[in-house]
Amino acid sequence: MKMHNKDMIKSSWADQVEDQSEKTTLPQPKVEQHGNSKIITEYRWNKDDKKEKVVRTYKIERRLVSKTIAERKTWPKFGDSRNDKPGPNTSTTIPAEEIQMQFMSGKDGDKVEENPLDKLKNVNMNIKCRNCGGEHWSFSCHLKGTGLVIEDKKLVPEKVIEPEKNTSTNRPYIPPSAREGATNTAGKRDPYGRGYDEVPAIRIENLSESTSEADLSELVSKFGQVARIFLASNKITGACKGYAFVNFKAKVDAERAIKGLHGYGYDHLILNVGWSTNNYNKTSY
Amino acid sequence: MKPLMLQGHERAITQIKYNREGDLLFSSAKDVTPNVWYSLNGERLGTYNGHTGAVWCIDVDWKTTKFLSGAADNTLRLWDVATGVEIGNISSNSAVRTCSFSYSADLASYSTDQAMKQECEIFVVDARDDESFKSSAPILKMAVPDSKVTSLIWGTLDHTIITGHEDGAITQWDLRTGKSIESVKDHQGSINDMQKNRQGTMFVTASKDNTAKLFDVDDLSVHKVYVTERPVNSASLSPIYDHVVLGGGQEAMDVTTTAAQAGKFDARFFHVIFEEEFARVKGHFGPINSLAFHPDGESFSTGGEDGFIRVQSFDPSYKDFRFDY
């Protein structure tokens, strides 16, 4: 009985295939030519001793060139390339990924380098520095790294020079559209007249570090059309900082998203979702 | 565009150069073998084996018969382009930093580094044949006491040599007297590269002071300034459009100590006249050390600190692009 079993195993089709592959030699490389393209099929062993088929497609171009260039094309290869076959050697010539030339629109070429946090500034949020209470992010505080922390509000210098602010006072930020003299046609309900402020952002907290913007959009798009997603991520490593803001196009969708996602287990964490603006519709949640 | 990546060097690229027709692309790196490639398909034609130090500079003559390379092994070598055979070798007392054929390639000039007690010198040698090249007595020798030469080109009708220096100065040398005619200091940092336009009337400099400038070949007056926020290592003028491409990036030594902000290693296209940037091409993951337009203006190549050479052919969108003004 045992013997029989052994024979059975030996004659299993899987073994046969393996045996064969060890014994056989590589098929001859094949060159096919169809009109303007040449297809070279080669076989080789990879590092696991498996057969690999390499198919390369070349485009053949005919060009009219001057005699000198044509003559140079016939030169034999020399130096380290003397053993190379005609045509590009794959170890030295690699076709790179397709790239696009990026054209600058407008006059300002530096617009490309935009700080993602600048976008947040436009959202109606109260930005407050933990160090000095000024209206900037704590990491861009002028006192950062100096070891000075101002405990008494009176000690805050009146005229702080902020590199990113034009006004030197501590008034809350007013977007240009809402300033005096600005023509505001967006109705009285929303003093800021911004598209996505009409439906406030929802804030999603307790996201895991590995969350990407694509993951998030997959998660929230179930609830309706999304106008904008902001995922706070580390500038250098790209890892998620644990929170995100999502603007829906319709308020109903935003409410549904809050109801649906609050307390929802995502990755290994429980999400905490609410309205992002502290002065808007707090009663609804 | 779908670039070709040429991987023939083990270390940072120092210079790349097309021949006159643009069918061949020569490259050198901080390893010991300059390479030559067919620019159309990226096929490597050969390597020039013989140097024992980093190759700093290369040049090829008008007829693509002779190839010149200068290296940190204190030699300047002359090669047969077609076979890679060394046909001349001049030793110097310090590393050869720059080399250049005159237009006719009857003469060649090169400069050596400042080292220990050795001061920087510019030499002019006869490059007509092996014998004259080997006879090692230079036709002309000019000492540069103050700041070493970092780039060198020939002036109009091979009457002058123009050198860019480490302190940002640009000097014009008269070959008849062996003295400097004119010297201007419009740059604050080392001049890493100088390339003439197709007509040979102007040249564009690339400087460590984050700018590239367009100079007149004859009177060294500044015409245009192209400002970036990173050191510029190389700049090249388009032979067919009013475009100049700048390559650079953070200095190699600073790359590891500063945040890796993407997009600083792009090739940046400026309009020559309006001095404004209009396009960028990404690709390298280190600073671009040398770049060149193909002589037909349809493609360009960049060589980076990452050791790769990228040959990029322009898309129709580049040719259709009209600068807004």
Automatic annotation (TrEMBL), chain A:
Pfam families: eIF3g, RRM_1. One of its GO terms (cellular component) is eukaryotic 43S preinitiation complex. GO terms for biological process: formation of cytoplasmic translation initiation complex. Component of the eukaryotic translation initiation factor 3 (eIF-3) complex. SMART domains: RRM. Residues 75-85 have a biased composition (Basic and acidic residues). RNA-binding component of the eukaryotic translation initiation factor 3 (eIF-3) complex, which is involved in protein synthesis of a specialized repertoire of mRNAs and, together with other initiation factors, stimulates binding of mRNA and methionyl-tRNAi to the 40S ribosome. The eIF-3 complex specifically targets and initiates translation of a subset of mRNAs involved in cell proliferation. This subunit can bind 18S rRNA. PROSITE patterns: RRM. Belongs to the eIF-3 subunit G family. GO terms for molecular function: RNA binding; translation initiation factor activity. Residues 1-37, 75-95, 165-194 are annotated as: Disordered. It comes from Sipha flava (yellow sugarcane aphid). The gene is LOC112684989. Coiled coil: none annotated. This is Eukaryotic translation initiation factor 3 subunit G. Keywords: Cytoplasm, Initiation factor, Protein biosynthesis, RNA-binding. Gene3D superfamilies: 3.30.70.330. HAMAP family: eIF3g. Residues 200-278 form the RRM domain. It is found in: Cytoplasm. InterPro entries: eIF3_g, eIF3g_N, eIF3G_RRM, Nucleotide-bd_a/b_plait_sf, RBD_domain_sf, RRM_dom.
TrEMBL record, chain B:
Gene3D superfamilies: YVTN repeat-like/Quinoprotein amine dehydrogenase. The keyword DNA damage does not apply. Keywords: Cytoplasm, Initiation factor, Protein biosynthesis, Repeat, WD repeat. It holds the Pfam family EIF3I. It comes from the Eukaryota. GO terms for cellular component: eukaryotic 43S preinitiation complex; eukaryotic 48S preinitiation complex; eukaryotic translation initiation factor 3 complex, eIF3m. Its main location: cytoplasm. One of its GO terms (molecular function) is RNA binding. HAMAP family: eIF3i. Component of the eukaryotic translation initiation factor 3 (eIF-3) complex, which is involved in protein synthesis of a specialized repertoire of mRNAs and, together with other initiation factors, stimulates binding of mRNA and methionyl-tRNAi to the 40S ribosome. The eIF-3 complex specifically targets and initiates translation of a subset of mRNAs involved in cell proliferation. PANTHER family: EUKARYOTIC TRANSLATION INITIATION FACTOR 3 SUBUNIT I. This is Eukaryotic translation initiation factor 3 subunit I.
